[in-house]
Backbone:
């Protein structure tokens, strides 16, 4: 290895260590800890970064990339345009809404499925409608988001599922959400808790903050094994608005609460400590069915055991009676 190559490699390592150390120091000095590898707290009105940890480190974005997909869709399609679902789109892995090949949906319905339910199948269907294929859409999307200011983002899919050469940064995610919130339709969709699409399928927003605090305006969650938890969202306290982007988190909700508190503190609009409500949030209907099913299975097992025990006991009694008759004993 030449001296020049060695020097460049050493400089790169030193720079990376300094960036990580600086970010960790910033978090420690502010008096809180997070498990995330990267975060950004941004003033939503000015775009100024209030606090950050490794804001420009390349990391997989998971489903937060769907915000960018939605931005591209509204640039090229109308809300009432019809989208026919292909076999490839319907075969996308979870999470998905279960659209089937040959079905037709409006762009509006698929955007709700994309941003509330985080439907990977909806992402593919929209990408194919815009560009003919998901691969072509990803190339186009990369070009578009860089024009919009996300200079460190490269897209390989429309849904954020793991792929080679697909990454973003917390700073880029915050910038893209800030831009997306300027579109009234996208802002409305991401602020919606529930939405019903054709077939009576009710979609529920994955952004739990919408159900736990009035500060939440909109947001998008993400998770894969490679990316860990990712998130980008907007929060409002009076006239103050902040955007928080989080990447590589092991405990998303627990990381986000102190970041929200710190963001409004830095904005000069402090709030009370947020309770750990997101982890405890319980969506009753589905959970009750699961509980009932488990109770039913347990009761059936118990009944089977009683029947078996009763049968064996009766056989033993018959044998004893036969022995008594033969021996004449009582």
Residues:
């Amino acid at each position: 290895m030449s001296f020049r190559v060695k020097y460049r490699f050493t400089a790169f390592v030193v720079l990376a260590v300094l960036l990580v150390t600086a970010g960790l120091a910033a978090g420690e000095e502010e008096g809180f800890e997070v498990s995330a590898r990267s975060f950004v707290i941004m003033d939503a009105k000015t775009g100024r970064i209030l606090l950050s940890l490794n804001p420009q480190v390349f990391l997989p974005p998971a489903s937060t990339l769907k915000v960018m997909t939605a931005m591209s869709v509204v640039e090229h399609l109308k809300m009432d345009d019809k989208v026919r679902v292909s076999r490839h789109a319907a075969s996308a892995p979870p999470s998905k809404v279960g659209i089937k090949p040959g079905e037709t949906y409006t762009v509006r319905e698929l955007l709700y499925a994309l941003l509330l339910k985080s439907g990977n199948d909806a992402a593919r269907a929209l990408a194919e409608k815009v560009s003919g294929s998901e691969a072509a859409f990803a190339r186009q999307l990369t070009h578009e988001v860089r024009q919009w200011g996300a200079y460190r983002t490269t897209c390989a899919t429309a849904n954020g599922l793991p792929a080679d050469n697909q990454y973003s940064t917390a700073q880029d995610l915050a910038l893209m959400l800030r831009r997306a919130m300027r579109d009234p339709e996208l802002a409305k969709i991401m602020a919606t808790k529930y939405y019903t699409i054709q077939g009576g399928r009710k979609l529920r927003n994955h952004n739990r903050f919408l159900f736990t605090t009035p500060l939440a305006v909109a947001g998008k969650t993400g998770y894969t094994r490679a990316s860990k938890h990712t998130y980008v969202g907007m929060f409002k306290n009076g006239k103050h608005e902040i955007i928080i982007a989080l990447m590589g988190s092991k405990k998303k909700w627990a990381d986000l609460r102190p970041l929200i508190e710190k963001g409004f503190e830095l904005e000069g609009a402090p709030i009370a400590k947020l309770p750990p409500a997101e982890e405890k949030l319980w969506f009753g209907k589905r959970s009750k069915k699961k509980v009932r099913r488990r109770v039913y299975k347990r009761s059936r097992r118990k009944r089977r055991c009683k029947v078996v025990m009763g049968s064996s006991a009766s056989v033993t009694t018959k044998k004893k009676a036969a022995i008594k008759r033969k021996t004449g004993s009582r």
